[in-house]
Amino acid sequence: MANPSIPRLRDLFRPLNPPIKEWTGRTVWLVGGSEGIGLALGRELIARGAQLIVSGRRQERLLEAFPEPTVCKIACDIAKPEDLEQTCATLSKQKLIPDTVFWVAGVYSPMQSWDFDPFEAEQTLRINLLACYHGLRQVLNLWQTHEQSDVPRHWVWVSSVAGYRGLPLAMAYGASKAGLNQLAEVNYLELRPRGIGVSLVLPGFVKTRLTDQNDFAMPSLLSPEEAAHFTLKGLARGDFEIHYPRRFTRLLKLLRCLPYGLYFRLVGRLRQD
Ligand SMILES: NC(=O)c1ccc[n+]([C@@H]2O[C@H](COP(=O)([O-])OP(=O)(O)OC[C@H]3O[C@@H](n4cnc5c(N)ncnc54)[C@H](OP(=O)(O)O)[C@@H]3O)[C@@H](O)[C@H]2O)c1
Fold it and tell me: What residue ranges line ligand 1, CB within 6 angstroms?
């Protein structure tokens, strides 16, 4: 008799999440939607018919990026737990309950082991990782107090391939994204059985103000619009892990499997080139 705790072969090929192919009728909270990848995602989601709630730290920038009166714009600094609490209280009061959350907000400053500011490192970890716990808690509270509509709930974490393994210049950024990758895996295991989909988005290089700081050649650089396209394509497939562009991220996934002896030598050599 088959052991019920061992997944059957055909289950391995089933999507890990309910595929999201249709955005009309969805209410999406885009955290970090005023610039870069978040902005491109927001524009595309509006075009596909989603009702959008968009947040970032600067209200005037949100108004500029999303002039449509139908878009709910909320200034919210995710590094401040009280801002997140206030935002969710406002959404609850307005009965504007997101069924899908894109957690896109993040910061990056190049940082090397021999020359860095620990306060800047702390701020990176606060925004890129610690804030995620506060945001998730607040939204789960909302979801627990408001009945679910017909639309299945879904959480999308935007992380980075920099979280796969240690890379030069990513002293704080890499650690924050490695932590986020783990958090997403735990969320999947624990929220999916409760009917909540969870996806982890791992972009390679995307041309935004974040990567404009880099002074090295960035292979397979994408536009924010391409990044948004690949993200939504992954959600339409029902993927948990959405990584792109594959010609670059597949190589990084391979490097992730190498023993340290080989990994350090290869990455060290790339850095010298
Ligand atoms: N660009 C890349 O190559 C790349 C690659 C891999 C992963 N990623 C990840 O993708 C995400 C978006 O990156 P991006 O390149 O699009 O960056 P970006 O252009 O700098 O946009 C970042 C967004 O996050 C918001 N934000 C930053 N700090 C915030 C805070 N404390 N509270 C609320 N909102 C905040 C910003 O709005 P305000 O400034 O108005 O607050 C902005 O809307 C990040 O998580 C990043 O780590 C990017």
Answer: 32-38, 56-58, 61, 77-79, 104-108, 127, 158, 160, 203, 205-206, 208-211
